Amino acid sequence: MAEGSQSLRFHRSLYAPEAVDEAVRAFADLAKLTVLHNPNDTLVVIDEPSADVAGVLADELANFALAETVARSRTLTVEGA
Question: H helices within 3-56, ranges in order?
Fold first, then answer.
């Protein structure tokens, strides 16, 4: 990992990998984001964040991924009912 990089690990028991991918797409204009899907989690490495969002980008990306996971699980529950 490059100096100044930040990494986030999203465990699959809490975050849907597709939701993490959606969060990365939503925030792609704000930093260089690299995604690595592993058997137990999804790793996101944040490099070169925009200066105006550098302090909050990781938290906001994680919040977005969690909200997207919840929204997707509700959709699956409604469709499966």
Answer: 17-27
